[in-house]
# Entry
Amino acid sequence: MVLLALFLLLGLMFYERSRRAELKRQEELSRRISGNSAPAAQESPTSEKPSPHFAIATHESLRHLERLLAQAGLEIPLQQFLALSLMAGIAGLLLTWLLLNSAAVGLYSGVAFALLPVIYVWIQRKRRLVIFSQQLPHVADFLRSALRAGHPIARGLQMAAENAAEPTATELRLALEQMRYGAALPDALESMFKRVPEESLGFFVAAIRVQAQVGSSLADILDRVAEAIRSRQRLQQQIRTLTAQARMSGLMVGAMPFFLLVVFSILRPEFTSELFYDPTGRKLLEAAIGMDVTALITINRMLKI
# Structure
């Protein structure tokens, strides 16, 4: 009950902070995806300064995490995300410690629970990049049609931003804002590539930059780029189809030990009690979990082409 009340109190606190920051979320998102960090608070002259290497490493890690949040399309502030990860880690630590009465397993569980929000952000980022990559050929076709109809490239980008779906529409609007402030088209697209590190967009940006330096028909270049991106996507889909059976087999083999452990813990607890309450059993369980996770990562790496 105490834990439940604590989580409810923290949840209400975060909800109130989110409600008050509703009007500033779009500005926060624009600042984070542009890679600019907030100004650091001035330190007290009497405070002890941390090591410069540690401060630089921490600053870079926070900027990288902030960039991941922006690339995933999440508007949650960095401080709130870190607090959420800390809450999840404490909850996993306490629950595992109370249930299994093992500090070591509780520590591992706390780290795993703390990484769950990061894993969710990574999955959302990957999903958003895939959607952007699928929408990019249609944007190239739209720009090509606009150029052949006599519209300038800025007007074509504006029409594409008005008609495209998310997340492409947001990125195109940000590129248009940069062009309004004086940035050239290749530079604006280069900034978009930093915000959305998708290889298909890299091909698109490279083609636009070459056209700006050499000079040729931009509509024809966009036509060839769209066809190249579609061919690349078809090849990736064929590879995923050919490796689907191996990926599913690896997932099933990796998940089977955890599934059997849960089943036997429910149906025949005496079979698995030694793994949780005996010191040797705990070490064997920790080793088994480590080897299983290592095998999953190895299989995943082997199937990546």
Confidence is low (pLDDT under 50) at residues 1-5, 35-50. The chain is about 80% helix and 0% strand. Residues 131-233 form a domain with the Receptor-associated Protein fold (CATH 1.20.81.30). Residues 103-148 form the longest helix (46 residues).
